[in-house]
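User: quick one, fold this
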Amino acid sequence: MIDNYEDGLIDKADRDRKLAAIGAEMEGIDVRIRVETVPAIDWSWSPAALNEVLTAVLERIELAPDLRPVRAAWRVPEWRA
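Assistant:
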């Protein structure tokens, strides 16, 4: 949507409407249905691969100023054990 807007293919109202629809659809996805167990994490993976796994198991991550994780909210609390 952003590319289409920047290229002049859609106006701001269309962009905002389409992004809102995508956001609403994403909110409706329950990641707990797709992930049954916490996958092993290999910290040498690419940032994109790490992000995919971490966002599947964690709802929110709070970072310190040095970007170290301080606390996280698990999507399924039982996975923390």
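User: anything notable?
Assistant: DSSP finds four helices and two strands in the chain.
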